[in-house]
Design goal:
By secondary structure, this protein is mainly β. It has strands spanning about 1-5, 10-15, 25-30, 35-40, 45-50, 60-65, 65-70, 80-85, 90-95, 100-105, 110-120, 125. Strand 7 (about 65-70) and strand 8 form a beta hairpin.
Length: about 130
């Protein structure tokens, strides 16, 4: 296991492991009383940096193919948030209510843009720098 982060429940961690032959995201009880459970399955490339939402319902991560994912922990359902072409996603952060994922995506012009992904509607939106009066 590697890159462990506590889940909000405080009794388990989310971590990456290659127990199946490819790196997947796992939820592991810290006391070892129950077995670890895979949140993701079927990886074809290495998964990286798993971040649980504050409510513990979702885990966000990216993979080696520059895809950003959100997985529902209870169901294991996968949602591809974005596909990058110019580098890894950065600065993944959840809103306090766990309904929004903010991330930075590099663009073709070497500048980066902040995006927000809403877990309720499954849409990603760019954060604009324009002023609205």
């Amino acid at each position: 296991y590697r890159d462990a982060r506590f889940m909000p429940d405080g009794i388990s961690v989310v971590a990456l492991a290659d127990r199946t032959g490819e790196v997947e995201v796992w939820v592991v009880p810290v006391d070892g009383t129950t077995p670890a459970r895979a949140v993701t399955t079927g990886a074809t490339v290495t998964r990286r940096e798993a971040f649980p939402s504050p409510d513990g319902r979702y885990v966000a991560h990216q993979d080696q193919d520059q895809r950003l994912w959100v997985h529902e922990v209870a169901k294991g359902a996968a949602h591809e948030v974005a596909h990058g072409t110019h580098g890894a996603f950065r600065d993944l952060r959840w809103s306090p209510d766990g309904q929004w994922l903010a991330y930075v995506q590099p663009a073709v012009n070497a500048l980066s843009r902040i995006w927000l992904y809403g877990v309720t509607d499954g849409r990603a939106r760019p954060v604009t720098t324009e002023r609205f009066d």
